[in-house]
Amino acid sequence: MSASETQNAKAIAFLSQHKAPKILVLPNAWDVASARVFEEAGFPSLATTSAGIAFTLGYPDGQKILQEEMLARIARITRAVSVPVTADVEAGYGSRPEDAGHTASLVIEAGAVGMNLEDGAIDSADPLVDLSLQLEKIHAVGEAATKAGVPLVLNARTDVYLAQVGAPETRYDETVRRLSAYRDAGADCVFVPGVTDRDTIARLAKDLGCPLNILVGPGVPPIPELEQLGVARASLGSSAMRATMGVTRKIAQELQTSGTYHALEGGIPYGEMNALFRK
Q: Where residue 84 sits, what CATH number does that domain have?
């Protein structure tokens, strides 16, 4: 099977995982090591975390990282694992539809078979991108995938809840309005970070009628319950990377205080870690 045929097969498999009875749990990797650990744990697909990658390369989150650096890291991850990978590429690295389309082409070139596209308006007085512009971006992503011949799985994200846009009583309707439009424009899955309430999650899954992605972590219903609520996809965002940095901070603090090594316990043994990269 050629490289393009393999990538297409991964894309088809990844899309089918959104429509299976079982919820798709997507851990977000930030480098090859984290990706290999997640793959060895048995996850059928992986995602990248834009914030996690940016942090490890010395950038704050929010499209401050150079596009080529983000795509280079994504490419290293896709080459290191055999499972499908979907890429978090923030708002598409540009304000124009053609920027989103170009980014989609680069995502495909990097070996990924899916991408996130968010509607947060970075460095703007308005918290969200104009809806009509966001729809043009989604269409551009679809056109880029068609041109490349790869069925890129688009996860369209709205930041209504995450950025607390508008009065609380208006957020649900605005979320449904935006995500319904993204779905109709060609998004394969829709993403609502910042929602934690069971009833709201269940309503969204029912009212949107398409695969729904929820950002999980402390305070969010556990995976089995999300599956019962109708959620198709659960992702971690940058939380696993930040939790790892939390362990690193504990190690540093222990070395500076007691001079002991308890925080190092539970790490992956050297031999097992080394073996992850022998494939």
A: 3.20.20.60
- Residue 12: pLDDT over 90: yes
The secondary element (H helix, E strand) that includes residue 179 is helix 168-185
Q: What is the pLDDT of residues 41-93, one digit of tens each?
A: 999 999 999 999 999 999 999 999 999 999 999 999 999 999 999 999 999 99
Angle, vertex CA 92, rays to CA 4 and CA 36, nearest 5: 55
pTM of the model: 0.96
The gap from C-alpha 4 to its chain's centroid, in whole angstroms, comes to 23
In a domain, 158, yes or no: yes
Q: Is the residue at 279 inside a domain?
A: no
Give the list of residues 6+ apart from residue 263 with CB closer than 8 angstroms, or none. 247, 250, 251, 253, 254
pLDDT score of 100:
98
| Domain extent at residue 113 | 3-238
